[in-house]
Design a protein that fits this description.
The structure is a single chain. The protein is α/β, with parallel strands linked by helices. It has 2 domains: about 100 residues, Leucine Dehydrogenase, chain A, domain 1 (Rossmann fold), CATH 3.40.50.10860; about 120 residues, Rossmann fold, CATH 3.40.50.720. It is built from 10 helices and 10 strands. The strands form 3 sheets. It has a 5-stranded parallel sheet with strand order 5-4-6-7-10. Strands 2-1-3 form a 3-stranded parallel sheet, with helices on both faces. It has a two-stranded antiparallel sheet with strand order 8-9. The longest helix is centred in the N-terminal third of the chain and has 23 residues. The radius of gyration is 19 Å and the shape is globular. It binds NADPH dihydro-nicotinamide-adenine-dinucleotide phosphate. The site of NADPH dihydro-nicotinamide-adenine-dinucleotide phosphate (NDP) has 26 residues, from α10. It catalyses: (6R)-5,10-methylene-5,6,7,8-tetrahydrofolate + NADP(+) = (6R)-5,10-methenyltetrahydrofolate + NADPH; (6R)-5,10-methenyltetrahydrofolate + H2O = (6R)-10-formyltetrahydrofolate + H(+). Pfam families: THF_DHG_CYH, THF_DHG_CYH_C. Its EC number is 1.5.1.5, 3.5.4.9.
């Protein structure tokens, strides 16, 4: 499954809608990305997001306070972005320095501008099956499934990993599409669960944890993991070559889910701009 190609298609769809919004409504979606400190991986991710935002025609801002910023000062920054009508989406790149509580910061972002879908209100709406802003990575996985014509209804879906940003929302989105969902974590009998999966989504962060021999023949395998090996090579959480021999579809790492995450962030920002940017601001 070529995530890069699907992601390019999503970005092209977003760009076409941005062009129309500008022309018909004079509205340019705006995305503000907050990156605290000098985490090298965060810098790479944020650069990718900024580049994509520019390509689809958004206004974008990177706010880059230094590592030592206090939680109170960071909250003040978030409040300013919340109040700025040119900003439709706010993304706070994780991880944050240890002295800052990410839950406090995530909860401070206005839910309407929470384009990561991490705010408790958006996460709660997903749980309740309501329409809401969806976490970008699982949202991207759902789009990949759609692209290959994989309808989760009635299938056994196994999600490995229960984080709030990938595993849990992934399981809820699959459930909403009527899959029979199992969530695995560090205490699960992993092999037994994986062997029964028609759709397998792995988001753990352990290189090649899931073995090719465990994959059910014909399964759809989505590998969210991104792990750097000592030789510098990037690999997923699934043994790729051996799994590809058994799976009907499998995402590579890199070039699978990663580009979809950024593309769905563009989608979420556009949707936030349409939903709230077109509504007259009540002062
Ligand atoms: P977390 O570390 O927050 O969660 C990892 C999960 O994996 C936990 O639920 C943990 O279980 C579970 N786990 C750990 N070891 C095992 C094991 N041996 N067997 C089964 N489950 C296990 O990670 P994230 O969800 O944030 O990220 C997961 C991976 O996805 C990482 O590699 C990350 O880099 C990547 N990622 C990729 C993105 C992309 O765009 N491609 C976006 C986001 C993440 P427990 O809860 O019991 O501890």
């Amino acid at each position: 499954m070529d995530g890069k190609a699907v992601a390019a298609r999503v970005r092209a769809e977003v760009k076409a809608e941005v062009d129309r919004l500008k022309l018909e409504h004079g509205l340019t979606p705006g995305l503000a990305v907050v990156r605290v400190g000098e985490d090298p991986a965060s810098k790479v991710y944020v650069n990718g997001k900024k580049k994509a935002a520019e390509e689809v025609g958004f206004r974008s801002w990177e706010l880059h306070p230094d590592e030592g910023i206090t939680q109170a000062a960071l909250l003040e920054l978030i409040h300013q972005l919340n109040a700025d009508p040119a900003v439709h989406g706010i993304l706070v790149q994780l991880p944050l320095p240890r002295h800052i509580d990410p839950d406090v910061i995530i909860s401070a972002v206005k839910p309407e501008k929470d384009v990561d879908g991490f705010h408790p209100l958006n996460a709660g709406n997903l749980l309740l099956g309501r329409s809401t802003t969806r976490a970008c990575t699982p949202y991207g996985v759902m789009r990949l499934l759609e692209e290959i014509g994989c309808d989760p209804a009635g299938k056994r879906a196994v999600v490995v990993g229960r984080s709030n940003i990938v595993g849990k929302p992934m399981a809820l989105m699959l459930l909403q599409k009527n899959a029979t969902v199992t969530i695995c974590h560090s205490k699960s009998d992993l092999r037994r669960e994986v062997e029964g999966a028609d759709i397998l989504v792995v988001a753990v962060g352990v290189a090649e944890l899931v073995k090719g021999a465990w994959i059910k023949p014909g399964a759809v395998v989505i590998d969210v993991g991104m792990n750097r090996k000592p030789d510098g090579k990037l690999v997923g959480d699934v043994e790729f070559a051996a799994s590809a021999e058994r799976a009907s579809f499998i995402t590579p790492v890199p070039g699978g889910v990663g580009p979809m995450t950024i593309a769905m962030l563009m989608r979420n920002t556009l949707d936030a701009a349409v939903r709230y940017g077109l509504v007259p601001v009540v002062k």
